[in-house]
Amino acid sequence: MSEVRVPAPRGAARAARVLLGLPDRLPVLLLAVGLAALLAVLAGRATPVVVLPLAALLAAATWRLVPPPPPATRGQLLALGGLAVLVTGWVVLGLRAVAEYVVVNRDPGFLTLKALWLTDHPSAPVPVGAAQAAAAAVPGASAATEAFALHGGALHAQGSSMLPALLAVQGWAGGERAVLAGNVTIGAVGLVAVFALARRLVGPGWALLPVAALGLSLPYLVLTRAAYTEPLTVALLCGGLAVALGTWQAGGRRAGARWALAGLLVGAVGTARIDGAVAVAGLAVGVAVVGATPLGARDRRAAARGGVAALAAASAAVALGLVDVLVLSPDYVGERAGRVTALLVATAVLVAVAVAVLLAPGRLLARVRGAVHARRRPLGTVAAVAVVALGVVLASRPLWWQAHHTDPGSGYGYAVSVLQQAAGEPVDPSRSYDERSLAWVSWYLGVPVVVLGFAGLALLARRAVARRDAGAALVVAVVGVAAVFPLVRVSITPDQVWAVRRLVPATFPGLLVAATCALAALAGAARPRGPAVRAARGAPSRAVVRGRRVVAGVLAVAVVAFPLTTWRPGAGVVELSGRATQAHAVCDALDDLGVDRVVWTHSSPFRYLATLRVLCDVEVVELLEPPSAADLAAIRDAWGGGPVAALSFDAADYPWSVPPSASVGGTWSQTLGRTLTGPPREVDTTWSEVWVGLVQEDGTVAPAG
Asked: Residue 45 class from Cβ within 10 Å (0-12 exposed, 13-18 middle, 19+ buried)?
C-alpha cells in the first residue's frame, strides 16, 4: 500500500522538502566546487577569492535543475534520518583512522602532496629553482622524482587535478589535517549519492541497504581515508544517475537542462580519473536505448532533446578532464596514450551513434520500434538471460582461463612474482589475475551480493525492455559498461586491497544497488486479499509472501554483515602512520640549520624529493644510488656553494666526516599487508628514521648538530 501523506504546516512542508532534496543536491554541490576549483587550477588562480565565488555561481546556476525530491511521507523522512545517522557515524569512524600519505607511495602520495601544494599556492606546477642546474652536475642526479615529471623548471604531478583541488579547498579551512581527512567528506557524499540513486529505484527504506554495505566494506573504508579518486567517482556517477532518474520521473519544462546536469555529473568522472570516459560510453548506450524506444512523437522528441543535452554536457566534462592532464600531467598521458586514445575513440564512436539514433527521423526507426514493442516481453526475458549469462561467464573464468597481461620484465612483473612467492603460488610474473575480478568483489561484499547483484541487473534489464522503463535502461546501460569494463580487464597490480579499487567506482555500488532491487522484488509481493482473489490472479498465499519477506530480510542482514568479516585487522589501521610527523620533524631540522637546499639519496622505503619540496619548501636534488664525496662536492658547487644538507633513510649512503650519532623523525609506521589470495590479514610495521648532515667543501658530510 502507498503511504498516506498527512497535510503539514507550510513551513514544515518546505523544510521537509529541502531535507528530502539533500541526497540529490549534495553531489551537485560537490560538482560545483570541484569544477570551480579545477578551472581555477588550470588558470593558475586557485585561491579562495576565485574558487569560492565561482563555486557559488555554479551552485546557483544548477540549484533549480536538481529534480524535485520524492513526496514528504513518514517513510521518506524516517529513511533520511537513518541515512543521517549512518553517514555521521561512518564519518566519525573514518576520521579516527586517516592515513598520512605525505610520501610518494602509490596514488594517494602524489595526490596528497599536490593538494598540500595547492593549499598554499595558486597553481599546480611546483618550481624546482636552481635544483635543476645543480642536478645536471652529476650523472644520475635529478630534480624530478617518481610521479613528478619536470617540465619548464617545475614538477608536474601525475593524474587528474579535481581531487587535489577539492582537498585543497578543504585545506584552506583546516590546514594539512583537513587535506589528509578530506576524502572522508567526499566519501560521505558518495554514500549519500548511492542512497539518492537507490531511493529512485526501490524506495527510501531499502535504499539504506546499499549505503550501509558500501560504507562498511573494507575497500571503501581504506579508499576514503587517503587521497584516492574512487570515492569522488562514486559521488559523481551515482549522483548523475540519481538526477537522470529524477528527471525522467519528473519531466517538466526544465527536463532538457536537467538531462544536461545529469550528463555533466556522469562526464565529470572524466575530470576525476583519466579513464573516466567509460562512464560516458555507458551513458551513450543508455540514452540511445531510451531515445529509440518511445512510440509517441512527443515522447520521442523529448527523449532526443534530453539525450543530446546529456551527451553534450558529458562530452564537455570529459574534454575538460583531458585538457587538465594534457596541460598539467603530460608525461602521465604519454605513458598511457595507447589505452587512453582507444577509450576516447570508442567513447566518441558510441556518442556519435547515440546522437544519430536520437536525431534520426521517427519513420526510420518506426518499424524496429514497433517490432520491439510487440515482442517486448520475450525480448525482456532475453535481456535478463543475457545479463545472467554474463555473470556466469565472469564468475567461472578462473576455471577455464588465466590472464597474462603483465610484462614479466617490468617492475609490475617483479611485484607479482614477489606476491606469488609469499602466497605459495607458482611464480609467473606475466599473470595479471583479471580472471579473479568478480571473486575480488565476493571477498569484500560476499557471494550473495554477486548473485543478487546480477539477478537485480537481470530484473532491471527485463523491466527496461518489457515495461519500456527508461530509468531501468539507463541504470543497466551505465552500470553495465562502467562496472563490467574493469571486471573484464582490471589493468592493475593484483595485490589487495589496492587492486580492488578499480571495482569500487561503479562495480561495488552498481551490484549493491542491483542486489537491493532483487531483494525488494523478492519481498514486495502484494498481500493477497482472499482465496477468490488468489485463485483468480494466481497470487501467492500469505505464507508464501511471509516466507519471501523472511528470506529477503535474512539476505539483507547478510549483505550488511558480511563486510564486517573483512575488517580485522585493516579497518582500524592508520596507513603510513607517523609519516606526517616525521616529515615535519625533518622540516624543523632543516629550518634550525638554516638550509634550503637538500640532496636526497633514495633508500627504502620511499622517494622523498616531493615530500621535502612541498612540505619543507626547499630545493631538492635526488640521487638513486649512494654518491661519492666528489659527487656531493660537484652538486654543492653547482648550487653556488653555501649550506647544502644531505638526507637519507640510510646513514650508510653518505661519506661522513665522523660517524653520525643521532637521527631525525624516528617513527614506527604501519601499512596493510599485501596479498593475492584475499583481503589483507596482516599489518606490516616498519621503523624509519632520517639522517641529516651538511655537505662540506670536499664533499664529505658532517653530522647535523
From this structure: middle
Q: Are 267 and 201 in contact (CB under 8 A)?
A: no
**CA separation for the pair 68, 60 (Å, rounded):** 16
**Which of 475-479, 526-530, 648-652 is least confident?**
526-530
The SS3 of residue 673 is coil
Instruction: Report CA torsion sign: 115, 121, 125, 126.
Output: negative
Residue 388 corresponds to which cell in the numbers above? 545472467
Rounded CA separation 643/591 (Å): 12
Give the SS3 label for residue 159. Answer: coil
SS3 599: strand
List alpha helices for 401-445, DSSP H.
411-423, 437-445
d(CA 182, CA 169): 9
Q: What is the maximal distance between C-alpha atoms in the chain?
A: 102
Which of 287-301, 436-450, 505-519 is predicted with the least confidence, judged by mean pLDDT? 287-301
- pLDDT score of 482: 87
Do residues 684 and 671 lie in contact, with contact meaning Cβ atoms separated by under 8 Å? yes
The three grid cell numbers given for residue 161, joined into one nine-digit string: 587535478
Q: Which residue in the block uniquely carries the three cell numbers 549469462? A: 389
Digit-coded pLDDT (tens) for 248-258 = 877 667 788 99
Phi, psi of 586 (to 5 degrees): -65, -45
Return the beta strands (E) in 319-415 as ranges.
none
Residue 443 CA to residue 134 CA, distance in Å, equals 50
- The pLDDT assigned to 609 comes to 95
483, 278 in Cβ contact below 8 A? Answer: no
3-state helix, strand, coil in the chain (%, to 5): 65, 10, 25
Among 322, 293, 325, 327, smallest CA distance to 307 is for 293
Q: Are strands 597-601 and 645-648 parallel, antiparallel or unpaired?
A: parallel
Chain centroid to CA 32: how far? Answer: 17
Q: Is 229 within 8 Å of 111 (Cβ atoms)? A: yes
Amino acid at 174: G
* Cα-Cα-Cα-Cα dihedral sign, residues 292, 296, 297, 299: negative
Instruction: Please count the residues of the chain.
Output: 705
Helices H, strands E: what count in the chain? 27, 10
Question: Residue 535's pLDDT band (boundaries 50, 70, 90)?
Answer: very low
d(CA 47, CA 492): 35
Reported pTM: 0.93
CA distance 222 to 235: 16
Does the structure show a pLDDT above 80 at 294? no
Distance in Å from the first CA to the final CA of the chain: 78
315 to 67, 267, 320: CA distances (angstroms): 22, 6, 9
The DSSP element (H or E) to which 531 belongs, if any, is helix 531-537
